Amino acid sequence: MPLKTIISLCIFILCCAIPPSNADERDDGLREFKQGNYELALNLWLPLAEAGDREIQYNLGVMYSEGRGVEKNIEQALIWLNRAAEQDDADAQFRLGKLYTNGEELKQDLVIAERWLRQAALNEHGAASYYLAQFYAHGKGLKQDNDLALRWYYRGAKNNDIASMYNLAYIHETGQGVPVNLPEAFRWYDKAARKGAADAQANLGQLYFSGRGTAQDKILAFVWFKLAAEQNNQNAEKNAQFTFRQLNKLDQQQALTLFEEYKKKFLR
């Protein structure tokens, strides 16, 4: 899925299949936006959006929904987000789903929210799959169904959604609606932890410390506790200190060395 030009400064403009003049206008609009010349950016992007460029339509929807460079206007945001979503832009579909779910910017409508979230999820949008799973898990706008919630959590995790990974791990660790499966819990805590999720790191430390779902390894338990503690998880800091005291001096040195290595890889 193309990265959206508004969301990050690390942006790549996809120029393939775009006429050179349009690509220039995209680039010029991005440059003006980054320099704070929002009116110029808007003038450059509007013709592209009107011509049907769904990525620019999404960008305008974000601008109006968040007041980025323009006066916040949820009605204009909905116009552009809907136009992009109707062209099957998954990010636009997801943003519409969130707006109708949260009910802060406009009246909550879980029927519309579910429709757009489902479409985005079917387009492999990880966060949309997570939202849909939450709808099923908690009976929000849909009949409560643990099996369907699990299915959508798996789909979200497949599409790199960290919250879906964590929920899968927790569900299998605690047996919520499924039999307890500690190896599966370990697998998903490990994936989420390696993407920097502090709670997953703390829970992974617990599994290593107790040898549940994996072989006991107090060195790795310390490392994951300490990584979570670096992200202000206070219980993890206490667990890291407790675990460290149980290691001999050689293992303590190995644990500290491994922590520094993992810190570079797995802290967000």
End-to-end Cα distance: 22 Å
Secondary-structure-derived class: mainly alpha
Overall pLDDT score: 91
Strand content: under 5%
Rough outline: globular
Largest sheet: none
Q: How much helical structure, as a percent, in the residues?
A: 55-70%
Kindly report the CATH topology of the domain at 161-268: Serine Threonine Protein Phosphatase 5, Tetratricopeptide repeat
Give the SSE order as H and E letters. HHHHHHHHHHHHHH
CATH homologous superfamily heading of the domain at 161-268: Tetratricopeptide repeat domain
Please specify the SSE layout and strand pairing.
Blueprint: H1 20-34, H2 38-50, H3 54-66, H4 74-86, H5 90-102, H6 110-122, H7 126-138, H8 146-158, H9 162-174, H10 182-194, H11 198-210, H12 218-229, H13 234-245, H14 249-266
Helix pairs in contact: 1-2, 2-3, 3-4, 4-5, 5-6, 6-7, 7-8, 8-9, 9-10, 10-11, 11-12, 12-13, 12-14
